[in-house]
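for the writeup, i need someone to sanity check this before i put it in the appendix. the sequnce is what the collaborator sent (i think, or maybe the updated version? ugh). structure was predicted straight from it, no edits. if anything looks off just tell me and ill rerun, i have time this weekend
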Amino acid sequence: MNKKILSELGNYLLAHREQIIGEWLEAIEQNPDISSLAHLKDEEELADHLPELCKNLAKLLKAPQSGQKRAEVTRAARVHGRYRWRQGYRLEEVIREASVVRRIISHNWLDAYARKVANLDSGTRRVAENIIHQAVDDVVSDSAKQFVEEQLRATNHLNSQLADAIAELRHQKRAAGAAKTTKKRKRPSR
């Protein structure tokens, strides 16, 4: 593994971040399986997490064994999961978005870098691919975890409201029953 080449790949991805984001936006907009993006206001709102992912991926390529850098990916992924939940995305759409970014970076941009850098050996390329895949896997799992937590929180809130409404109905029913009983007792006998 050539650490210098990995580090340069990180710089290369950062230098082409806007193009990567552009390719991703185009692919997402053409993906019929991601329909929730239709109600988003602009491209910045859609690409919310990509600049951060590119920075974190570059850091991981520069320091492949860094647990701290993976933690940054995790934190950003959880923020992304919360953000997409609030935007009305479905979980499968969040996962598809990550799959698209994986394909663009690992195929298009890693291949372009390999054509540019003749001394990118197969071992270093495998390490780069593993870092890319691990980073995207972290985004998928951590975004999904946050997404599910948001969904559970919303479900718990609705269940609490439902329990309160049922309790109120029971209270009203008891009060109506008590009023009816009192009214029967007060009727004059014939």
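The domain at 3-144 is CATH 1.10.490.10 (Globin-like). The longest helix spans residues 122-186.
thx in advance!!
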